[in-house]
Design goal:
276 residues, alpha/beta, Spore Coat Polysaccharide Biosynthesis Protein SpsA, Chain A, seven-stranded mixed beta sheet, two-stranded parallel ribbon, 11 helices, 9 strands
Length: 276
């Protein structure tokens, strides 16, 4: 039986953590552990998580970051810690469980059945028979943002910002999370950009899979503000410059120790074409 660690970043979530749901889930699914990352919370989140992990330290794990570094850094450090535990798969989802934990199992199944994948993404599409509870204004904004992100990446992606994403636990995943993300909110786009840089746009589309979620609900209390959507435009421009206009990312992170040989081969071929 394969083993998975789900990373759950938490910042001031003491009143929203669904402890009974976490307990129920690990009892039903012995192959999945939960790693909570306390991102310098100012409320009682740390105390709540410490109490929970004491109940079952083998299944509930805790990484306490003393200073708030943002969701991107909390997820990054959580994934790296999870990889050190040598599971078969790692991933992350939101603390409010907008994506139910059972939906995470479906993403894990995708990776199990399609071993060539580097990433499985949850997608919030209002399809017939799917229970996606999302305000129309958020749905319209999300659709527009997905189109903008797809233009930046040069690859069509239906939903970059859904909070559930899963990966095989290997060195390529460690590469994806090896360096701090430059964006505070759009690190999901950066993950895809790093994958594209490593494999090339023609090959990368076959390395990630978008799975329409059966269930998702918008949870009140989101920390996103309207001005964050304006800031996102500037962050997308910065991502485009960092990953597709400059060679800084490739020079810094593409090395034989961190990337699959196939990805390195593609990268070297691209360098040769540019040099010619």
């Amino acid at each position: 039986m394969s083993r998975t660690i789900i990373v759950i970043p938490c910042y001031n979530e003491a009143q929203r953590l669904q402890l009974a749901e976490f307990r129920r889930f690990i009892q039903l699914h012995p192959s999945v552990d939960l790693l909570f990352v306390n991102d310098g919370s100012r409320d009682a989140t740390l105390e709540v998580l410490q109490s929970l992990t004491r109940e079952n330290p083998q299944r509930f794990k805790l990484l306490d970051l003393p200073h708030n570094g943002g969701k991107a850094e909390a997820v990054r450090q959580g994934i790296l810690k999870a990889l050190d535990d040598q599971p078969d798969h790692v991933g992350f989802t939101d603390a409010d469980l907008a994506t139910p934990l059972e939906e995470c199992l479906r993403l894990i199944d995708v990776l199990t059945n399609k071993r060539e994948l580097a990433m499985a993404l949850g997608v919030r599409l209002p399809l017939a028979g799917h229970n996606i509870q999302r305000r129309p204004i958020r749905r319209w904004i999300g659709r527009g943002f997905a189109k903008a992100a797809s233009l930046v990446l040069g690859v069509a992606v239906a939903d970059t910002q859904c909070g559930a994403k899963f990966f095989p636990a290997n060195e390529f995943t460690r590469y994806l999370f090896s360096v701090r993300f430059s964006s505070k909110w759009l690190f999901d786009v950066e993950i895809l950009a790093r994958l594209l840089v490593a494999h090339g746009k023609r090959n990368a589309r076959s390395r990630f899979y978008e799975l329409p979620l059966d269930q998702w609900r918008e949870v009140p209390g989101s920390k996103l503000k309207p001005r964050d959507f304006v800031r996102a435009v500037w962050e997308l421009a910065a991502i485009y410059g960092e990953y597709f206009l400059l060679d800084r990312w490739k020079d810094r992170c593409l090395s034989p120790a961190s990337v699959e040989p196939a990805a390195l081969s593609i990268h070297h071929q691209e360098q040769g074409r540019r040099a010619a």
